[in-house]
Specification:
19 helices; alpha/beta; Rossmann fold; 8 strands; two-stranded antiparallel sheet; 52% helix
């Protein structure tokens, strides 16, 4: 049965964990399209124009702290490649590109990364982890929450030792225009029950496209702990997590660096992006030709698992946001929305389960309303990680993440 969708942006009826249930009647606009129409002045900062002059002034007015001006969190996708290109070729900054291999890069993505960093002659660190550690992390997440990679928080976790070491003035995290909007627009809804601190954080993003490093580190710290503290891990994984959590926690005290979303400032037109990065030898990987993102081959699996839980995956919100703001051809992106929000098992799912040593029967119990289940901290894992916070203190924070933050 085909989902009821918004006649304007294509958003299907369903549940958004960070917001709530979206109900639609036939041929009706969704809540977010209506919100945009009534609050265009507040959306204006995102919707209207190119603000590179603001970014240029911000960068030039902040003195370099360490060896590098900027760390770029580099996935090899089109957005982070364009960011790297702009900062090196047009801004003439001293850049360190860091790639955390989440285990889901195919050879095309890795080849793109190598070609681009060579062409731009930038320093590059490629973080490769033991396969057993990645499997341990993903196996716990899919069994506990019916999801796989929470890539944003995990990438910050594993890059944090290098941020701590090199002390850049700026960390650039590249996302599409649609991702930026989808992550933050619920703050404009006065009926949403976001806590005050979360609302302040999102409003900062909407107003300025940047936040201080300590804020993003704190948000990522609790997002990562949400996943980790519910699971059981081998000693090797515990050691890796413990070492990196120590670095991430230290960044919660760093307020002299900024975390930047370049799509807020730059003209994030897909044709302009592709035109420039193909000059660097970047090619669209075959494994992601029919998906939104251009680096992770598990995107369709994420959407499939979300659908099985009655949840609208974040990738769908991204595409609908871009439709809403006329940043993408609606017919083309509606096809991707239909592909991402449906009960058709992608071929990568059986491959993932085999890699993790699991069966569908192992995972199916988790494919319920994960955010509605009671969140429990695993006492043994908590003790092994040697965290400074008490269990009660952490539980309060992690229950909020559990309710509002299971998105990816």
């Amino acid at each position: 049965m085909k989902s009821v969708i918004c006649r304007n942006c294509g958003l299907p009826e369903g549940k958004i964990p960070s917001y709530g249930h979206i109900k639609l009647n036939n041929n009706e606009k969704c809540h977010f399209c209506k919100l945009f129409e009534t609050q265009k002045d507040k959306y204006g900062r995102l919707y209207n124009s190119n603000r590179e002059d603001e970014l240029y002034s911000l960068i030039k007015n902040v003195k370099r702290i360490g060896e590098y001006d900027v760390i770029v969190m580099y996935t090899g996708g089109k957005d982070s490649t364009y960011t790297l290109y702009k900062l090196v070729m047009e801004y003439n900054l001293k850049v360190l590109a860091i790639t955390w291999d989440n285990g889901f890069f195919d050879e095309d993505v890795i080849s793109n990364i190598k070609r681009v960093v060579t062409k731009l002659n930038v320093d590059h660190i490629f973080i490769h982890m033991e396969e057993s550690v990645l499997k341990d992390i993903y196996r716990n997440r899919i069994l506990n929450f019916g999801r796989i990679c929470s890539c944003g928080p995990l990438s910050i976790l594993f890059i944090s030792p290098y941020i701590e070491k090199y002390q850049p003035s700026f960390i650039f995290y590249s996302s599409s225009f649609g991702q930026l909007v989808a992550q933050n627009e619920c703050v404009l809804d006065e009926n949403d029950d976001l806590e005050l601190e979360a609302r302040k954080f999102k409003m900062l993003m909407l107003k300025s496209g940047k936040v201080s490093l300590n804020r993003i580190a704190s948000q990522s710290y609790y997002s990562v702990l949400h996943d980790i503290l519910s699971g059981e891990f081998c000693s090797e994984t515990i050691k890796v997590l413990k070492d990196n959590l120590r670095s991430l926690s230290s960044l919660r005290k760093r307020n002299n660096s900024f975390y930047i979303y370049p799509s807020y400032y730059m003209n994030w037109d897909k044709q302009i992006i592709i035109s420039n990065i193909t000059k660097l030898g970047w090619k669209l990987p075959k494994a992601v030709e029919n998906t939104v993102h251009t680096s992770c081959k598990m995107e369709q699996v994420k959407s499939y698992l979300a659908y099985k839980q009655g949840i609208i995956n974040f990738d769908i919100l991204e595409m609908c946001a871009e439709n809403r703001y006329e940043k993408k051809e609606k017919n083309a992106s509606q096809e991707l929305i239909d592909m991402g929000y449906c009960n058709v098992m992608p071929g990568q799912y059986p491959e993932l389960l085999e890699w993790l040593g699991l069966s569908e029967d192992d995972v199916n119990p988790a494919l319920g309303n994960a955010d509605q289940k009671e969140y429990i901290i695993n006492t043994e894992t908590y003790q092994k990680l040697g965290l400074q916070e008490s269990k009660d203190e952490l539980l309060q924070q992690l229950m909020y993440v559990h309710k509002k933050g299971i998105l990816i």
